[in-house]
Structure to design on (511 residues):
């Protein structure tokens, strides 16, 4: 029996890992390494442009920057796609028409970001000033300058708003095509590119843009690049997304604040009323008690159930990482939980706390409910189920502040503002031939398992692509799972960014 030194064993393993990747993927990887400095410089310039909805002019600046990126990388017919609403934020479009190609892929990401409160960010960070760290800042990562030689460590991270959600998606898609173009690789599908500017605002005008440009946007498949890879670090593919809608609740009591000593035990307390109302919506095991809440759910198919069984369990990892106790839904795994509709409290407010607390009974209490939907749920119906539950708890429902007459007539009053831009869930069959090709392409970029998830926990307006364009969609996310998207200290791990370029490139080279 031959004996091998540790160095030889490592060499053999390294060769095996490389051989697991396709030759096309390896060419893109090499191109990434050779052009890392240029890629990161362009990306950080992109991140410096503010991209929140409150500043429409900066969103236009983002769109213009993307158009410059696309033109520079050889993408043709670059233009802004508008809807019918004047001055609405446009989508950015471009295309690569391949001679002889009979099928078309469209790559989607969004360039707008969530609002920012700089005071909530680490004191060393500024949301629109990208900074490089040797690791996660909450795990002793150290700030370092961007290297002049362009040599980057895969574990380093860039901190900035939209670094992961979703400018990384835009960057990965465009640099994937750039690498294909520069290495002489030839796509066999037509490639189209669509970058939305209102996703974080609920894609308010996306339907208008799709309807107005329906002929231009015909395709065989949309590739959605948004969201994180699996918590295990493995690449993953989502075949659907949950829908989403919101309800704003305000419970009323007395017309002015009252001294809690003089009036406590007598005047109804809206904070307590709201707490009791919300508590009536879920049992101790996290099951929603609203009548009919789960009735419309379309069950997973046999292939989807089989895929779900193969998803690595990260429950123990995430409870440790997040410092949690038992999960809300007892006996239900994270993988199972995100395939169910949910009712969450996004926030509650009544009176003051901390040093601002005072001995008072407040006049109102408010809460925002977030309803996540799965295939079969319809967002207006799901809202109404919750409203009907509230009425059954004895509340008079209004859509405005109560009048004096209403206050006299009804002992329990609640104002409900139902979000009117909800989105439904969407799911694409895993068994379609073109979907199987995408799965194989992503697998060609890694020697590890590719996680196949029937449904992503988050929400995207993918049902609009299906409804308006009769299109199929599949989501291939690239960001690290601990990227802090939508929150302070958002970041992207460099390995995820560069791996994302390889992943998008492999899909562009579908045979």
């Amino acid at each position: 029996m031959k004996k091998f030194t540790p160095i030889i064993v490592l060499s053999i393993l390294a060769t095996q890992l490389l051989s697991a990747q396709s030759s096309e993927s390896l060419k893109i990887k090499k191109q990434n390494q050779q052009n890392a400095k240029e890629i990161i410089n362009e990306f950080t310039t992109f991140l410096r442009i503010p991209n929140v909805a409150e500043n429409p002019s900066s969103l236009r600046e983002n769109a213009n920057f993307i158009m410059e990126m696309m033109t520079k990388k050889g993408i043709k017919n670059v233009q802004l796609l508008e809807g019918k609403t004047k001055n609405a934020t446009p989508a950015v479009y471009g295309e690569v028409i391949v001679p002889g190609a009979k099928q078309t892929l469209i790559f989607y990401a969004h360039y707008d970001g969530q609002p920012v409160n700089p005071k909530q960010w680490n004191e060393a960070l500024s949301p629109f000033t990208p900074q490089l760290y040797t690791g996660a800042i909450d795990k002793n990562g150290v700030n370092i300058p961007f290297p002049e030689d362009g040599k980057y460590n895969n574990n380093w991270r860039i901190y900035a708003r939209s670094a992961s959600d979703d400018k990384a998606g835009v960057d990965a898609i465009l640099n994937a095509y750039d690498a294909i173009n520069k290495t002489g690789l030839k796509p066999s599908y037509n490639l189209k590119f669509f970058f939305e500017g209102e996703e974080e605002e609920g894609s308010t005008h996306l339907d208008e843009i799709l309807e107005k440009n329906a002929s231009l946007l015909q395709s065989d498949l949309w590739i959605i690049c948004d969201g994180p890879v699996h918590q295990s670090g493995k690449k993953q593919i989502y075949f659907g997304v949950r829908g989403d809608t919101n309800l704003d609740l305000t419970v009323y009591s007395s017309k002015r604040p009252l001294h809690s000593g003089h009036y406590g035990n007598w005047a109804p307390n809206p904070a307590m009323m709201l707490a009791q109302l919300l508590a009536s919506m879920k049992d101790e095991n996290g099951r929603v008690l609203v009548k009919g809440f789960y009735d419309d759910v379309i069950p997973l198919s046999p292939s989807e159930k089989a895929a779900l069984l193969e998803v690595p369990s990260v429950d123990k990892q995430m409870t440790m990482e997040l410092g949690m106790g038992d999960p809300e839904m007892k006996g239900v795994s994270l993988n199972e939980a995100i395939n169910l509709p949910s009712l969450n409290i996004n926030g509650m407010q009544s009176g003051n706390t901390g040093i601002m607390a005072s001995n008072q009974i407040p006049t109102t209490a408010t809460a925002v409910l977030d309803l996540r939907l799965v295939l079969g749920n319809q967002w207006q119906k799901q809202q109404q189920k919750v409203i009907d539950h509230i009425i059954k708890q004895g509340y008079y429902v209004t859509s405005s502040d109560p009048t004096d007459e209403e206050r006299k007539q009804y002992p329990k009053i609640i104002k409900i503002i139902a979000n009117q831009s909800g989105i439904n869930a969407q799911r694409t069959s895993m068994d379609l031939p073109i979907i199987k090709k995408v799965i194989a392409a992503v697998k060609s970029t890694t020697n590890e398992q590719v996680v196949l998830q029937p449904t992503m926990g988050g929400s995207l307006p993918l049902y609009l692509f299906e409804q308006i364009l009769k299109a199929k969609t599949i989501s291939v996310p690239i960001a690290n799972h601990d990227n802090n998207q939508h929150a302070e200290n958002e970041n992207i791990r460099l390995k995820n960014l560069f791996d994302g370029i390889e992943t998008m490139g492999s899909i562009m080279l579908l045979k």
The mean pLDDT is 93. The two ends are 43 Å apart (CA to CA). The first strand starts at residue 76 and ends at 81. The first helix runs from residue 6 to 19.
